[in-house]
Amino acid sequence: MAYRAKAIALGAPYITDEVVKLRKSGWSLTGVLLASGQILKAKIVVNAAGPWAAEVARTAGMELPISPTKRQVFAVKPAIPLERPLPLVIVPSGLYFRSETGGLILVGRSLEQDKVGFDFSWEWSRFIEVLWPELAKIVPAFETLKLVRGWAGLYELNRLDANALLGPWPDLQGLYLINGFSGHGLQQSPAAGRYTAELILKRSPTLDLSCFSPQRILDNRPLEEGGVV
Question: Is the whole model's pTM more than 0.85, yes or no?
Fold first, then answer.
C-alpha cells in the first residue's frame, strides 16, 4: 500500500479493474483488455499478478509453471510472555516461527498436501495436530499457549525451481515478468522491482539478476535452491 500511495503521489494513475486479456499483434504486445471492457494500449506490460500470473499469461498463449498454492499461518500467545522478541526461526522440517506485535508468535509450515487453487480457508486442526506438537518439542515453553487466530494466503509457487522469474518473456516483445517468488517475494521485492524498472528503461542494472531470466523456462534449466520454505 505504501508503494501504491507513493506512486499515486508521483502522478501514476491507479485503476481498480481486472486484466482479462493480454493483447498482442504477432510477436509484440499491444496492451491489455480490462473486465470493464476498457482497452489500455501499451508497448510494455509487466505481469506482476502473483498467484494469478499464469492465468494472465495464458490469455496470450503462454504457459508459466506457476501454481496458486495455499499456505496457512497461525498466531499464538504463549502462556508465559517472552522477555524479548524472537528472530525468525526455521527448523530443518520447514516449520518456522517468529515474534509478532502484541506478544504473539506467528507459526507456519508448508506441506506437500497444501491445496493448489484459490482457496483462502484455514484449518484449526492443522495447528493442533501437526504444528503444535513439533513446536512444543523445539521450545518446551510453547507446550502451553493459546491459538488466537489463523489465516490462509497464496504462494505463487514456481514449479520449475521455486525462484523468481524476472525480465522479458523471450517470445513476446514488450512483456516483462516479475513472478514465481514462491513465498520470498516480499523479501526480494525492492531489488526485483528496481531490476525490472532498469531493464524497461534500458539502464545498466544495479544488480545482475540475469540468472532469474524467464528464458530458463524454455531451456528447462532450473535454478535450484535448498532453503525455500
Answer: yes
